[in-house]
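Person: I have long wanted to understand how a fold can be written as tokens. Underneath my words sits a plain record pairing an amino acid chain with its backbone structure tokens. Those tokens are not coordinates but codes from a learned vocabulary of shapes. I should like you to check that the lines agree and flag anything odd. The protein I mean follows directly.
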Amino acid sequence: MVDNNVDYEEVDCGPWENWKKNWKSKMAFGQCPYVKDGDVEVVQSNAILRYLARKLDLYGSNNKEATRADMINDGVEDLRKEYLRMIYQNYEEGKGPFIEELPGKLKYFENLMKGGDYILGSKICFTDYNLFDLLDCLVTLSSPCLDAFPTLKAYYDRMMNRPGVQKRRATEHFKGLKINGNGKQ
């Protein structure tokens, strides 16, 4: 939102008990995140991403571009699921094997990113933000994980250096966020 100069209000639902008491019943699936935009209410991370992408012209300019964005976003989510499973269910024993297997998974993104600054070439799309977010988590988990992937590393650096991304990361709110709810990273 910040990178696209969109004004918004971010609300922290607070600790689990507060969220359960005040927010859970308001969510369509009983979980966060949640976006309210006028009379439109959206839950589910990827539904929110796609809603905002359509609204902010971050979905590509034709069906072929939108399909590429969707395809790569689904790949991002597949890897994110594996990451979250390790973080929340098998951190102690699973971290080492996850990091060892990461190059085999990142090579697909490396190959898909060749030929442009962003997923759709020269124009940024919603999937760029989602991929960047996941790469940021992975770099926190294993700082050298992108070293063998020059295209992906350059992409990560390019996203990190966008003025809006830097502005968001400089906020006290962002600095206080945990990457994962259980504190493992």
